[in-house]
Amino acid sequence: MLKIYPTFFPHFQCKADKCRHTCCQKWEIDIDEETEKKYRNTQGPLGEELTKWMKTGEEGLTCFRMNEKGYCHFLTEKGLCRLVLEKGNDFLCQICHDHPRFYKFPYDGDRGEEIMLCGTGLACEKTVEQLLAEKGPLTFRGSESDDFFHFDRILTLLHLDEEAGLSAPDLSLTSPFVEKAISRLEETNPIDTEWTESLFFIKDHMDTLLPEARQLAESTGSLFLTNLYQYIFYRQLDECEAYDPLAMAQYAEEAIAFILLEYARTGDLIRSVTRWSEQIEYDNENVYILLDSMDED
54 CB contacts (<8 Å, ≥6 apart)? Predict the structure, then answer.
């Protein structure tokens, strides 16, 4: 199997309590079967707590319940995980151990080989910081050689290079394009009420936010925005056989449009990226809602 990863991937390290926005909230945390058995066999007060805070749904999947504030019960006030503090990293369930790492599997039919695309999710502010720290174009490596290469080579590998311009976004931010992007986002399943409120605010203040977003696109620079576009595109390349590549490119471009509008609204670039990612990338149904709509266009 050919493994591909951005050059910053091996250097990723969770910021833990130094992160402004914990991952241990809002999402139900699924527990794999092996870890569930381990948790249910844990003795003493910790075992009793684990049993109390686990729940099994109608489909037979077990997860941790969130507390009344929407956080994992085992998250401390200092932003650290009690399970890690008391038992170590190996005690975590698989999803907590891996997050925010992702592994996608597009298939290269010509080579007869499966490809693994590795990375860390943009819902994590550390990932965004790593992207911001890139001094040049987004660079990748593969397991078959020590070569460094750019995004367009991955498109060629997956036979997506027939369409011109896929490796770079259109940052013109025209009103019809942006309005369509926000309208599509309104069709997704909101992660919380704040998401819905932010979309309403952006729509109601488009006349002032859009010019600001265009200015921010210039001041932020095409390097970061192109790297961000490519990274968003990269994460969905496992869908390259199901969707038109132009639809996938538009998915990434519309993500950039929202991020810039949210940046104009909040003044916080990193949080604008993580906000988009946790709403869209971490809900597969939302990804498909957007890609289906773009594919129809």
Answer: 31, 36, 39, 40, 62, 63, 64, 65
Identity of the highest mean pLDDT range in 14-23, 34-43, 241-250, 259-268: 259-268
Q: Which residue's structure tokens are 């997050």?
A: 99
CB 279 within 8 A of CB 286: yes
**Long-range pairs of 189-194 with CB within 8 A, sequence gap ≥ 24:** 189/283, 189/285, 189/286, 189/289, 190/279, 191/26, 191/278, 191/279, 191/283, 192/26
Pairing outcome for strands 139-142 and 2-6? antiparallel
Beta partners for residue 5, in sequence order: 141
What are 46-63's pLDDT values in tens digits?
999 999 999 987 778 899
Q: CA 43, CA 159: separation in Å to the nearest integer?
A: 54
262: left (phi over 0), alpha (psi -120 to 50) or beta: alpha
pLDDT digit string, tens, across residues 157-212: 888 876 667 999 998 899 999 999 999 999 999 988 999 999 999 999 999 999 99
